[in-house]
Structure formats: C-alpha cells, structure tokens
Amino acid sequence: MAQKRMSIKEADMLQYYLEGFEFVRKAVVYERTCDVAVYYNVNKRDAVINKLKKFDYNNKALLESMPSTSGRQITRDFQEKMVGMLIFTGVRNMFFPNIINNIYTVFKAAPYIRRGLRCLFKMKFEVDLLDALSIGISIAQGNFSTAGSLMLLLGVGSELEDWTHKKSVDDLARSMSLNVDKVWLVTDDGEVSVPISQVQSGDIIRVHTGNVVPLDGEMISGEAMLNQASLTGESVPVEKSAGSRVYAGTVVEEGECLLRAISATGQSRYDKIVSMIEESEKLKSNTENMANKLADRLVPYTLLTTGLTYLFGRNITRALSVLMVDFSCALKLSMPLAVLSAMREAGNHKIIVKGGKFMEAIAKADTIVFDKTGTLTHACPKVNRIITFDGDDENQMLKIAACLEEHYPHSIANAVVKEAKDRKIRHKEMHSEVQYIVAHGIASRIEGEKVVIGSSHFVFDDEKVEVSPEAREVVDNIDHRYSHLYMAIGGKLAAIIEITDPLRDEAKDVLKKLKALGIKKTVMMTGDNHYTAEAIAKEVGVDKFYAEVLPEDKASYVEKEKAKGRTVIMIGDGINDSPALSAADCGIAISEGAAIAREIADVCISADDLNELVKLKELSNMLKKRVDSNFRFIMGFNGTLIGLGIFGMVAPATSSLLHNLSTVGISLSSMTNLMPEN
User: Among the CATH numbers 3.30.420.40, 1.10.10.10, 3.40.50.1000, 1.25.40.10, which is that of 353-378+504-607?
Assistant: First the structure.
C-alpha cells in the first residue's frame, strides 16, 4: 500500500473491506510493512486491483458496518505484555540489588497469598491454595528466586490462556457476525435487496420467515415468532408485534415484520455474539468440564501427599518438592486451549464451530443424517425446463416464480432466481405480502389473484388447484429423475419448473472417507419423491434413505437414533431442516442455506466442498487424541515429579521449574495446528 505507516485500525478496515467481496477467498494484511496478500478466484486479478484503487480509509459506511473490536489489537497487546514481562524480569534480576528484588517478590506474592487464604477460609481445596503455599513457604525459607520464578511462570500461563481465549472468541464472533450480507430495504419504489452496509439508522427493513434480523430495531407492523436462542439461550420462540424491540441476530421462525433500524453498526451484533459465547456453556466440552473437576479433586491429594512426606521423613525440602507440583494448572490450562485452538483452526478452513462440545460430539459420532437438496446434491441446482399451460409465456412464468422465490434462500429457490438472471429477466416486486409454508411452498397475490408455488402435495392436496386434462397428462407422466416446482395462478396450474439436481462430484468419496473416520451409519432424508431419492441414494452409497419426509419426520428420526444410544450428526441447509439440526448431537448447516438453519446449527460449513465435513471430522478426531495425550502426559510427568520429590531426588526449585515449564510447554503445544497447512 502506498503509505509509510499503517495503524491497526487501518489494517482491520482494509481486511474487512477486501473480504467483503465474493471473489476474494482470503486477505492477509501486514500492518508493520504496509502490505496485503490477497487470495482471489481465477480470472479476478483485475477486479481485486480495481477494488483496491477504490478503497478509502474515510469510508463512513464501511467504518460503521465493521466491528470495533480487533483481534489484531488483542494479539498486539498480548505480545507487548509478554515482551515487557520478560524484559523487566531480566533487567530486575541482572541490575537490581537483592534486597529490592526480595521486597518486590513479597509485594507480588501478596495477591497469591490472599487468594490462598480465601480458599482456606471457605474450606475449598483448589489450585489457588497450592500456589499460595508453594510461594509462601519458598519466601518463608528465604528462597526468593524460586518464588519469583514460580510467579513468572504462573503469569505467563495466565496471559497465554487469556490471549488464546479472547482471540478465539473474537475470531468466532467475527465469523458469526458476518452471516447477514443483504437485507430487504423498503423504499418508495418497493422492496430492494441491498448490502447491509448501505442501511442507515431509521431505514425500514422487511424481514421474512426464516431470515435473520440484521440490526437492532423497532417493529412497526406485522406479527412474528422470533427465535432468540443465539442471544438469550431461550429454546421457545418469542411472539413479537408492532412496538416490540427486536435484536440483531434473532431469527423469524414464523410470520414476517417491518422494522425501523435503530442501530446501523456491525458492532451491535458482534457484541451480543461475544457475550453469548462467553456466557454460554456451549463453549465448554464435557472433556473440559471433567478436566476442571478432576483438577480440583486432585488438590487435596497433593496436600495429603505433602503432609505424609513431611510426617514420615521430617524433611521440609522433600515436602516442598511435592507441594511445588500439582496437576490442576496443566489440566485447567491445556484442555481449554486445545479446544479453542481447534475451533480457531476449523475457522481457517471456513468451518464455524460454535462450541467445544460440538467437536467432541463429532469425534464420538457414529451416525450422520444428510438432507439431499443442496447438501449431497449441488448447492446451485439448475432449471432444466419450464412447462407452461394454456399458452402462458415461459419467461413470464419464470419472472413470477423468481419474484416469489428470491425471498426465501434455498438451493431450489436459488436455481429459479439464477435462471431468471441468466435469461436477463428483471423481476421487480409485483406481489403483495408473501407467506411461506414450511416444507410446502409460498403463497401470495398478484393483481388480486392468488399465486402459489411449491411441492405437488402443497399445490394439489392442500390448495386443491384445478388441473386441465392437458396438464393432467403432463403431471401423470412427469420425469421423476428431476425435482419439480408447481405454480398455480388463480386456482389453476400455470407452470411446472423442472429442476436438475445433480449429485456433488465429491459426495460419494466423502461418505467413504467419513466411514473410514468412524461413522458407521449414513442416512439420507428428503422431501422429494421416492424415485428421485432412490436414484441419488444408490449413486452416493448411503446406508438408508427416506423420501417425502416432513421437517418433524427428520427431527423424530434423529431423536429415535439418539434414544438407541447413537451420537448423531445432522447436516442440512433449509428452513425445513431446522428442527432436526436442533435435535441432533451436532447440527451442521451449509453457509449458503436458510439463515435460520445457520443460526440454529452448531457448526456451519461453506457450500463449496463437502470435503470440509471430512476435515471437520479429522480435526475433531485429532482433538480427542490430543486431549487424551495431554491427559496422559500431565498425569505421568507430574506423578513422576512427585515420586522424585518424595525420595529427595529433586530439589523444590527444580521441581517447581520442571512442573511449570511442562505446563507452559504443553499449553503451547495445545495451541499448535492439528493438521499440517497445505
């Protein structure tokens, strides 16, 4: 970049700007050298350069849309703290008189002693008590250097844990806060789809069924049931009506609403997500919780061993050597770091994991249930042909269909909208209020006539649409290899849109790899007809398939499998997949699917390649191995140190140094990537 210096804020702004374009896969900004490395799609080099030319640090809309919290700043603060701590310790030891160093050591020890006494008064035998005893006895013996070294190592470990936690939470929240890209802005000319960065405070936004509320606002009309689980943890949707306050990040499960934006900044949603992550128990896996409980349970045994060593040997040095060692530091530090680092590494592969326990569930999983459309098949199916009746114009039918379908992101809907775009058909809003019926279709009115589009069950059975003899013959002889959307206008069948939904090239290979990684049962569930489902199931090689299922059927199946003792993963992309995603031990959503699916899901993967599922399973399996390996090392190494201390084979200072070095070492090891970078 043509500048001599770059601030952290400018670096964050540039990265946020570049990563907002579809053709940019990743942007890495080096603020110290004022450089940026951009990874972009093929044949998009000129587009990247053009966007760089237009970049402006004074862009107010960009400044308002990006979170003010900076992961880059978090890392810089940590680096400065660590360097400052180590330099000060070195200077103090080299140049300060012993008396000054000793006074400083006593001063620094006071908080540790205070926390230890608090544990003792409350009769809680925790690691703070061990730290206080170790530091206090060392000072009482006049061994100030041992006490200082112990506090330095404890300080380094604490800073490492704090930095890793903050950075992981920031990375995760930043990814989750960017899920909303475009919103429906209400203007004098009708509803317009615009980037969220263009929305100003006071603008009117329409939010449809299944979509995320993009910004904090006040509801001015409509009625809706809002899922607030991502922010409040409430599992039951909350009813909202005119005058209600609605919050960014919640999802409209039923109904739709008009809201007046109160906040036009990306920080609002980011802050709420950070708060949710930090307060939610989702971040803690069972392994982490067990490690914390075990760490606290081992403290009394360490104290007992210390007491017995002194009682039988009458040797305070040997007793101190035992006291200097405890299991809790390493257990409480390395386990969360391993989990958070694995979550961050998953993020590097475009996989958003919302909590450590979900990686643990994936590692244990033996059953995986796939939705078909947009999951095992391509996220962007194509329109094969459009069949019209009574002389209706094919492009006019496509225009109406696209006008309705663009409000509800799903792979089939996207195919209709894309076909209209490819044919250069402009589909300006021509309908009244749109009603979405989950797993069935869409209903609206155009020029006073009711228009419905959706499945055959919805159009023929529910809506009782009239079918002419000509249309009946077409319907009866429909090609079942394809998926179909049926559209009726004024109670008469007007068109059938035939969708080709080819299997993903990698799907068959992905299922084989998942089987090799521990998945024992693969299942496909779809709302499509039996013939289509059977053809796809045979081609991809799933163990079982179920056709013409409703959302509640998918969720019921997941619950039954869990009741049999299986650990179940569910993967889907539509509003109709949401109940099953919520019911599974781990729900995985495709990032280009419905917003409600992404919000309810525990993990989000991009729609580019199903091999991300394999990477996720590999990462989860490797995380489990790392956690088990850490546990064995901690128990073995510290147990050996205690044994050496009992027999007087290691001095207290050496015991403390080895114990704390091993704690920091295993913590640093836990922060390394599980998988080698490509």
Answer: 3.40.50.1000
